[in-house]
Amino acid sequence: MTPNRLTCEETFRRLNDYLDRALSPEEKRLVEEHLETCAGCAREFRFEMSLLDNLRAKLSRIDIPEDMLARITRRLEEARRECE
Amino acid sequence: MDGAVQVETAATYGAAASAGSGVTPDSMSFEQLLTPLLSPAFGIAMSLVGNAADAEDAVQDAALRALRGFDSFQPGTNFKAWFYKILTNCCFGRHRQEKRRPAAVDLDDVPDLYLYARTAASGLHTVSSDPAALLMEKMSLEQVRAAIDALPAEYRVVATMFFLDDLTYEEIADMLGIPVGTVRSRLHRGRRMLQKALWLIAEEAGIVQELSRGSA
Prior knowledge:
The complex is a heterodimer of chains A (84) and B (216).
Chain A: H1 8-13, H2 15-19, H3 25-37, H4 39-59, E1 61-65, H5 68-83
Helix pairs in contact in A: 3-4
Chain B: E1 4-8, H1 13-18, H2 30-34, H3 38-49, H4 52-68, H5 79-94, H6 114-121, H7 124-127, H8 131-138, H9 141-149, H10 153-165, H11 169-176, H12 180-204, H13 207-213
Helix pairs in contact in B: 3-4, 3-5, 3-10, 4-5, 5-11, 9-12, 10-12, 11-12
């Protein structure tokens, strides 16, 4: 049964699933309700969210080898011709 | 990487191909579905096989296998998950010896909030209202990649999929053929390990000391 209000410990146990957007809408609401009233937990959650956002932003730019896309496209066209 | 081209990943792929549901519209051609995935696929392959030449070969193999097997892809299901599954099989086929890169640092038993505690103890929370962003801005892409590379293989794979393409637990589980619970625990533990690896690299590079001076 889901409690009406979460303690700091209960909120923290949901941190990772919250970050991964894997909580149910009701659990998410309970976590956010706690974060609105608990500055300590809110600071920790903000830190973890910022870290993930910044990591994702940094890693979202990928150095692909020059002409890789053209080489693969060409190879796919050849494969199509071989099949015909 | 010499001769490399920096591109955005397929962050908009979900919106373009699946409207956020992971389900692929029936009307899209093979090329329309595949092309936006090639760049993030290369990033995932790099993480799995460790070098650009093998990673490109793996992506090309996967693209060819996907083309040949496209008849077996069920329209209305998730093309990205289907293609990445083929890709991971190609990568694992090339590199069965997954222990090629031993963890550079001891990452066992990293406590929760490791980086939060370290940055607080170093005074970074008094320097910025967003200490995580402050630290990450100072770290180069190469240093972040080195931290990910320091993770044991099973954690590195899951973390890479999570960071590069924001895949769900279920999608990653399906691609790797492991239970959802295993994905979840590896992802969470891997992120704690990554925090320690990032901190050690930042310390070694003098970034922590440089930022801490701002709090003195």
